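Summary for the steering committee. One of the milestones for this cycle was to obtain a three-dimensional model of the protein with S-adenosylmethionine bound, which we needed before selecting residues for the alanine scan. The sequence and ligand used are listed below.
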Amino acid sequence: MKRFVPLPLKRFIDQLLGLAPFRARVITAEERLQDLERRLPGLQQGLQQELAELRAGQQHLAALEAEITELKAAAPPPAATLDFRNALSHENFQMVRVAVSENFIRGSGIEIGALNLPLPVAAGVRVRYVDRETEAELHDQYDELGMADVQFIDPDVVDDAEELRQFPDNSEDFVIASHVLEHLENPVRAFKNWLRVVKHGGVVYVALPDMRRCFDAGREVTSVEHVIRDYEEGPAWSRSMAFRDFGKIYVAFGMDKGLVEHLHGEARTAREATEAERLDRKNFSIHFHAWTPDAMAEMFLAIKNRYQLSFETELMLQNQDEVIFIFRKTVPRPGPG
Ligand SMILES: C[S@@+](CC[C@H](N)C(=O)[O-])C[C@H]1O[C@@H](n2cnc3c(N)ncnc32)[C@H](O)[C@@H]1O
């Protein structure tokens, strides 16, 4: 069979086989110039096309940048984050409270003594506010501390935090008491009642001022024996002692804030005593007790053991000048036998 071999290829094979001589092809400068001139319009056209594509790309990029700027302007501000460079800011303090609340506070419950700083709660959580007095009565009490213009929560229920008479056992998903326990003469009685009204599985949120970081710094730490005696004998024995302590604090605080004139020596001691008596008569809501974080932990554990209380401590967290506790009520274990 005859094979058809294209001519240039046949010549190349012949050259390889030595049947035809190799001939060098010399390209002249003129030919090269002609070749370039021939290709130039094509090259120019290609470059113009690339330039056009580049311009279109630039326009697209500019449009995207404009869209991003627009989206950023319309977007909600980024979620707040803890700012460790400014760890002591009020924003950080509140954010820790919010984080604890969002993690532990669910359903429907009560906050005792919210006053001007109710604990923020997640959407859908229902809170009823409890205080020992109406909003107007709270102002009567607190205005002398320079709080006349501060807005207070108007309580839904007026009740005593130590008793919570209006709340049945196991009725609430949570009880919040932030900076309240130290204001109570009988903290054990109060804590037992907070556990009483919470359902099994519910939580008691307690925040207490760290006495090392507030006006209580100079006082004696409240011991476990003290609160047990308040509970078992009644708190009358320690009341005037607490008001005497608070008389001193009131005068020092008042002098600092310009609410009390500057006094020294006997005049100051006498003023401390009169303020203590006046505030006692007014049944002013003083700090009856003062704890360090260690003393708080010791107290909760001691009363849990002594009175066989059914709860677990799920959180103890220092938040600047306060300590936050989360206690979860558990089902009592059956006793022996
Ligand atoms: C220092 S304020 C707490 C303010 C706020 N919860 C916070 O975290 O800063 C104390 C609150 O406890 C309330 N309180 C004091 N004794 C009470 C009692 N026996 N029963 C109910 N509320 C009481 C006071 O009226 C006040 O609203």
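Key point for the committee: The pocket of S-adenosylmethionine is lined by residues 112-115, 117, 131-132, 138, 160-162, 178-180, 183-184, 207, 285 (CB under 6 Å).
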